DNA sequence: CCATGTGAATATATTCACAGCC
DNA sequence: GGCTGTGAATATATTCACATGG
């Protein structure tokens, strides 16, 4: 499906750099652009301006243009971006031209929900296998898949070409599971367990910790409360309160910006 | 220099001391330090060096020291940090000295799992109420709580002093729910729906999108594949990298750094 | 000594502002 | 005219390296 190569133009000989090396911050935003573009496509738009796409994705237009410029320009000056073309480009860069097989380990509370989450299926992934270490859970059917024992992981990973694993076990089991995944050839891990994983070089780990997200919000609640509690105290001995506006702020993942202007 | 601020102990009641204004990147890491500190405390440590805490939290020690220095110094040169004191300080800064009430909206697939997630309870939060718009779900008991209709949100939020809301609805319902939460006085929202929310200034939104996390990993998979496939193998489909990559890789994915020794 | 805390140096990210092209 | 693409300017974050003080 990938006839398109975002290669540097001209006839520079030899190697085609399959991927431009993108800033991490840009990589983290491309999926959001992709989602917004699909939404726009469904509502009949076939082109969109940087302003329009930016607001659909919750960022400002300068950032969006800079991000897209790293992919090599696919917009038209005076017009905007071709939605279908941009979708194709971003999907190519994100490696979504193939549907990637994912192994999910841990079918407890959260694992069950993840196994049933439709969003994985519609956005480039296929949950290829479910695993658990608890024999009492092995054999259970979830969403058309049978839970297997973790010992079957190596064989299954090889057969299904699984390169991405999701850990949804309790924290105490997570490191062992990570080791097993790596041993089975997995090179990317999404970790929902509240702990740090140690993995060899070349393996990528992303972590999602639900309580941490709330704790970050708690900080902002605390700060807002402390600001409103001191309306305009005249020289109370505490240093002047920085006048920071707005909700949001930035974060490595997830904090939405307040669109000021 | 180090002005000691006993959290909530002294001073006239009602007066909230101003918070140091922390870099967002630091705020996002404090919860991880807190988790690591609790773990250390449980295993009997009562002091820890920046090196030790950093490795337990998956960051490097310089970053950790810089982060902690923003809270005002609570370490002892030549010794390290007092675990209990640091826990207390971070919990104070994050606003975790009170247990915050949270409303969860949407008890479908994911909402169910979140309602049952023990980590919220053990790390500073109390799920105070569950809501759904579907009358067929109202009345259901989950984890000791009864699902209420979303229309009861305003009354309930006021009564329970709910300032934080979690949205676990389908994307099409999320904006409406957000509006309802804001109208009910909620000023921080954790959004699991794959869409951008528009909220008034002063309301903080954090977003967790499970598919986006996988897509970011997919990018790194794609990049790793293109690097290993590059040298002189043109167009050779997908190779299932069997071996760990050798040297020179750019390590981390931005969330977790290479850990291990 | 030793490990913290911190200025200085570097790296990364965002925003501005406008040239260039449709 | 309008909008993209981009260098330059600014802001934020990370890392270095060492003075400081228990």
Oligomer: homodimer
Show the largest interface: A-B, 103 and 99 residues
CATH architecture of the domain at 100-210 in chain A: 3-Layer(aba) Sandwich
- Number-wise, the strands of chain A total 10
What is the rounded Rg of chain A? 22 Å
* CATH fold descriptor of the domain at 100-210 in chain A: Rossmann fold
Which residues of chain A form runs of ≥5 with pLDDT under 50?
1-17, 233-254, 257-261
Q: What percent of residues of chain A adopt helix (DSSP H or I)? A: 25-40%
CATH-wise, what's the superfamily of the domain at 100-210 in chain A? NAD(P)-binding Rossmann-like Domain
β-sheet strand percentage of chain A: 15-25%
Mean pLDDT of chain A comes to 86
What's the tally of helices of chain A?
A: 9
The end-to-end distance of chain A, rounded to whole angstroms, is 41 Å
Largest sheet of chain A: 7 strands, mixed
Function (chains A, B): Modulates transcription in response to changes in cellular NADH/NAD(+) redox state.
InterPro entries (chains A, B): CoA-bd, NAD(P)-bd_dom_sf, Rex_actinobacterial-type, Rex_DNA-bd_C_dom, Tscrpt_rep_Rex, WH-like_DNA-bd_sf, WH_DNA-bd_sf
Organism (chains A, B): Micromonospora zhanjiangensis
Family (chains A, B): Belongs to the transcriptional regulatory Rex family.
């Amino acid at each position: 499906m990938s006839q398109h190569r975002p290669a540097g133009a001209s006839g520079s000989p030899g190697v085609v750099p399959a991927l431009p090396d993108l800033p991490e911050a840009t990589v983290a935003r491309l999926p959001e652009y992709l989602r917004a573009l699909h939404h726009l496509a469904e509502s009949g738009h076939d082109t969109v301006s940087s302003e329009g796409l930016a607001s659909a994705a919750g960022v400002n237009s300068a950032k969006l243009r800079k991000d897209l410029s790293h992919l090599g320009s696919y917009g038209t000056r005076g017009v905007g971006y071709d939605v279908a073309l941009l979708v194709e480009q971003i999907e190519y860069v994100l490696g979504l031209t193939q549907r990637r097989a994912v192994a999910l380990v841990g079918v407890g509370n959260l694992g069950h929900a993840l196994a049933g989450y439709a969003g994985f299926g519609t956005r480039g992934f296929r949950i290829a296998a479910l695993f658990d270490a608890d024999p009492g859970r092995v054999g259970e059917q979830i969403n058309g898949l049978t839970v297997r024992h973790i010992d079957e992981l190596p064989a299954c990973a090889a057969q299904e070409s699984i390169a991405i694993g999701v850990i949804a076990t309790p924290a105490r089991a997570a490191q062992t599971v990570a080791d097993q995944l790596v041993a089975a050839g997995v090179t990317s891990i999404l970790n929902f367990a509240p702990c740090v994983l140690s993995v060899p070089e070349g393996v990528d780990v992303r972590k999602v910790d639900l309580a941490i997200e709330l704790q970050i919000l708690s900080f902002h609640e605390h700060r807002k409360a402390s600001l409103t509690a001191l309306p305009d105290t005249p020289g109370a001995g505490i240093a002047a309160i920085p006048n920071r506006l707005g909700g949001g702020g930035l974060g490595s993942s997830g904090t939405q910006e307040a669109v000021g202007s």
